[in-house]
Amino acid sequence: MNLGLWDSVTGFFSDIGDFFSGKDFFEAAGYAWNDMMQLAGDVLTKNPSAGTYKDTWESISTIYTALNAVAVSLLCVFFLYGFCRDSCDLHADLTFDRTIKMFIRLIITTNVMSLALAWMPKFMAWGKQLTQVILGKNDLHTVYDFDGVKVYENISSGDFGTMTAFLTSILFFVFTCVCGFIVVLTVLNRILKIYMIAPFAGLALSTLAAGGQTAQVGYSYIKTFFGYVLTALLIAVVIVISNTFIDTVVLDTENAVVRLLEYCLKMGAVASSVKMSDGVMQKAFGL
Question: Less Cβ crowding at N or C end of the chain, within 10 Å?
Answer without folding.
Answer: N
